Prior knowledge:
Largest sheet: none
Structural class: mainly alpha
Order of helices and strands: HHHHHHHHHHHHHHHHH
Shape: globular
Number of helices: 17
Number of strands: 0
Number of domains: 2
Strand content: under 5%
Helix content: over 70%
Amino acid sequence: MREQREKKARPNLTEGPITKTLILFSLPILLGNVLQSLNGSINAIWIGNYLGEVALAATSNANIIMFFLTSSIFGIAMAAVILIGQHIGGGRVQEAKKVVGTSTIFFFALSVLLALFGLIFCSTILDWMSTPPDVKEFAMTYTRIIFAGIPFTFGYNLIMAILRGSGDAKTPFYFLLLSAVLDVALNPLLIQGMGPFPKMGIAGSAVATFFAQLISLGLLVIYLYRKKYFLRITREDLPLLRINWGIIRTLIQKGLPMGLNMVVVSVSNLLLVHLVNGYGAESTAAFGVAMQISSYVQLPAMAIGGAVTSMAAQNIGADKWSRVNRIAWTGVAVNIGMTGLIVAVLLLFNREVVSFFLPPEGKAIGIGMHINNLTLWSFMIFGIFNVIGGVVRSAGAVMFPLLVAFIALLLVRIPLATVLSHQYGFDVIWWSFPVSFSVAATLNVLYYQFGKWRQARMVKRPA
């Protein structure tokens, strides 16, 4: 009877209306992504206003380190989402619990090793990054505390992956909201030493993040056990808290290519920044603002891509391939609608949005508006590439989407922007966005239609 009640309470992504389910599932992911971006921006404002540019530069160095660390586990967490989703879709709850048990031990061990490594070699890492001497002392203080909090960061990412794989996107968002509110509220209190809180300077900002993540993670675990979440590890499940090398192999083999996708995007953006720097400070400033704006524009595509991955994984596990196909094209349509609406609003108020970041006088604001006019609409195409790639990856076919990203962003975008901009002018850099996204979307759609991705396997099918 209890098992039947638990089964009835589980999120089910293999039945019901696809469009409604997709929108309701992707909205918490989208809001969570927006929340994380705003959290980082607000904390930067606190640090910049209270401690100045040197402290802000120190946090930027730490954020670069954390980006690469989170990139390294992003793919593995996504592999866990797919693996759990396929097991849940196929009704193999005990197999899903094995993934949870192994992932818990693996993420915990990895996070502790990385935290110790960072604490011991923090100074050396900052030297490798050519951190300026006047920034390094601030950076050391901030980065060491951030490294100490890695187990909580990894723990939250793992639980978020488990919940999304089982079809629950709301619960991670609620506790992410709690973490963000705590972080934003504690930052000024601990930086300045307001009320009963000690004045800690830049260490206060890192400590605020540390405790926000610790409290949020602890309350999330308590909540899941009180709700009797069906994938929780009970006393009877303790033998599952062990390393299953078959599961670890799958998580790494399928996860690393997905993590490398983020690295490809980062390298492409760094090369573009290097190219734009050659056109002067105003162009660089305008490009930075345009990229800040586009980082919000692409959030719907990222959220819908994550949602279709979870939905398609469960339906592949349930062997409902016609529903997988409907999920794919519904995801494309929802992405075009959501992204298109945001783009239309931003272009309608283009000057107002850009002037929020740049002074009204000077050339930079005009350049920023021009970049928006040429690039923002192309993120609808980026969404097609991302959504179809998410469906393909949900089957376990992870290499082709990585290859497509490499071709489009490094073999098409960068040579196009570099070579042709010298011949045809500055605008070619911005046209490289729709061109590269179109190449990526076309290749992913062709592979989706004619490739052998449906034959990929994350888990062995029962005989």
